[in-house]
Amino acid sequence: MNPLRKLFKSSEKHFTGSGKFKSMEPLFDATKTFFFLPSPQNKHTPFVRDHLDLKRYMSFVILALLPVLLFGIYNTGFQAGLAQGMNYSFFKAFFIGARYVVPIIIVTYAVGFFWEILFASIRGHKISEGLLVTGLLFPLTLPATIPLWQVALGISFGVVIGKEVFGGTGRNILNPALTGRAFLFFSYPISMSGDIWVVTKNAVDGISSATALSVMAPEGETIISTLSQAGLNLSNLFLGFVPGSIGETSALCCLIGAAFLMVTKIANYRIIIGGITGLIITSLIIYLLPGGQDSWMNAGPLYHLCAGGFLFGISFMATDPVSAPGTNVGRWIFGCLIGFLTVIIRVANPAFVEGTMLAILFMNVFSPLIDHVVLRQMTSKRVPNV
Amino acid sequence: MENINTKKKFKPARGGMPDSSLIQLPMPETVAVSAMDIPYIRPKLLVKENDFVKVGTPLFCDKRNTGIHYVSPGTGRIKQIVFGERRRLKEVIISLDKTDQFIQFDHFDSDHFDTFPKTDIIKMLQKGGLWQCFRQFPSKDTADDTHIPPMIIVSLNGNDRFSPHPGIVIEKQISLFKSGLKLLDCLTKQVIVSARSDSMGKLESIKDHITHQVSDVYPSWDPGVVLYKLKTNPAQNQSWCISAEHLILITQFLLTGQYPVKRVVTVTRAQDKKPHILIRQGAPVKEIVGNFEIDTLITTGQFNGRKVDLDSHMGFFETHLNVIPDNAEEEMFGFILPGLSKPSASRTFLSCLTQTPKEFDCNSHGEQRACINCGYCTRVCPVDLAPSFIMKALSSDDIEDALSFGLWDCVRCGLCSYVCPSKIELTQILSDGIDAHYKDKQ
């Protein structure tokens, strides 16, 4: 017998029934089922079941996030080097990036799981796999310089208010990771918005560096020329060698993740394609409108697509099935409106340079309504059977 | 002939498909009439243990309509009357005598059924234990004899992907089948005969009678799905359905006056190619399945059957046994293994790249979680329902919403439960919702 299996078997009695650590049963159960996938015999028809379960479902989102995460770590170090006028080698940049990013991830998972286990123990349900994804999505939306206590505060808000008060994974209205980020964004705007602090070696005095979306062109110049002067040309924005939140900078990595999710059908392609379409159409219309030469109004679809966190948000946040609509038509509407709102917030509201987060949260709130309308429309087409 | 197409693409590779040969099972020691596969029945026993019965002796009737009899398929003594939970009748077991004696019912000399009064035909079928062949939508309860159905759907294929091939079942009884269609013409205005596209090859002789050809994607050939695709007005929701082999039994009965007892069944087991088996109705499962490994589970349909145990007998409506292995072993890191041999409707296993048949087992492969709204159930539903939304409406006791979403179109095919990554018992919940509402209405 597998020694690990033996260990679980021998310690099981302490965690179940009248064992000493009965209150820790959800934790024990989560650890055990992580290693050994439970597969009891089915009790109801159909007596065959698909091999896909929620653990695998969520693990696939993690897999899709790996390119984003690895690039994010590298870019954090790379930007630190750039800010100090040095060109770090690949490994050095990666190592420096990891020193900042890994603690954020560890804190997120530790604090997130603390809440998850607490609620699971009190309510007596199993620990849900949803946190695996939330716990990786949340750090990737943060700047690398964020203080760890803020990370802990943000994920606490996201998990407790964003999810657990509604009854846990599957019952939340808003995306928990984005809820946590929105909380930090409004509570600690200095460490979150506008100019993102780029980490330096000792991080005591970071160096401020503008993100693409906070750039405004001076009088008489166009936004695109100003952007390229600041090193924010389209190819850099697409590849991701620009300052910004850990995970959002590389459009390429986000697209790789999005393609993986769409091919495996974990994320619904309607949301991603709909979102990108909505963004392109809206930005094109605004581009063609006269005026606004110096602002993001005149940036055009490609810049809107590659700058900021839009591709990250639409690929990984908007496709969270729980907070998105459950009907196919609803998903198209949901995606398109996120793209539309993102551009509108970016160009029309100078207070919030990044529109994606707010657009997604806003549409999360509306997704039950979209579903309601779409379902009514769908049922009206059926031959009534009551 | 018209085609009924489906956009649904769930089509697992066909492992364990039965062979097209036919063997006869030797006379079993016992046969039984099962009440487990007759929906909504409230049985009233008409016999006691140790009574002597002939083929055609009524064993029990339905309390809701005591004229509808369920008759013995064998001659001998009642060995045992088995009750299940809450004293629900499970089956009446008869130990068979060597020789068969038949009860002689009234019969017709020709198949010109339109010359006889309709009520007589119905009475004869009810007494002869064959009225149950007619099922009425949307609940699929025994047909209401006072109701004139707007449509009767004759389905040539059984409930499972590997149910007996219609060509083999009706091979030598084509004239009976044609007479049966004449009978249906007396009962309704519109008769639909539907067949799966891949069984058309052996059905040349009755090709002219098949009105609709359905695609080969499970469960397109289910009469409920055919009805959903064809219906144009709400009155058609009360259509009837009957399977082709039952139609043949009915005509045989009406023309001979003897209760027909021969049935064709199939057994599927992974990596095995078993022939079709000719059995006596109600034969024991043990004898049909043959050598039996422990750690397996037997159902009467891969996705929509009930679980049967070795000591039970085949039901009247059941023509298929599916032997599913049990892999109770908890797999290490099962959630992230590539899974080349794991069947899945999703694209998260490498197995989606190959077309080789994969072995199904009877395990859940995960634990139940809250619905995450992923929409996998909607994707496979043959009648375009959104099972997750209906499930939520039912769990908040909102039956009106559930009905308006189309709950009664559900054909209980089992695909929603099969694909659900949260392992929610969707089919069970929907099915219970239908039953509760139906019993409420009665």
Defining key terms:
heterodimer; A: mainly alpha; 16 helices; 61% helix; globular; B: 442 residues; alpha/beta; seven-stranded mixed beta sheet; six-stranded mixed beta sheet; 11 helices
Content-based structural category of chain B: alpha/beta
The helicity of chain A comes to: 55-70%
Q: Treating each run of at least 4 consecutive H or I residues as one helix, how many helices of chain B?
A: 11
The most extensive interface between chains reads: A-B, 58 and 75 residues
Protein described:
- The complex is a heterodimer of chains A (386) and B (442).
- With 386 residues, chain A is mainly alpha-helical.
- Chain A is built from 16 helices and three strands.
- The longest helix of chain A is centred in the N-terminal third of the chain and has 34 residues.
- Chain A is globular and about 75 Å long.
- By secondary structure, chain B is of the alpha/beta class.
- Chain B is 21% helix and 21% strand.
- Chain B has eleven helices and 21 strands.
- In chain B, the strands form four sheets. In chain B, strands 1-14-13-12-15-10-11 form a seven-stranded mixed sheet. In chain B, strands 2-17-16-20-18-19 form a six-stranded mixed sheet.
- In chain B, helix 8 crosses helix 11.
- The relative contact order of chain B is 0.15.
- Classes of the chains: A mainly alpha (386), B alpha/beta (442).
- At the A-B interface, helix 2, strand 1, helix 3 and helix 16 of A face strand 21 and helix 10 of B.
- Strand 1 of chain A pairs antiparallel with strand 21 of chain B.
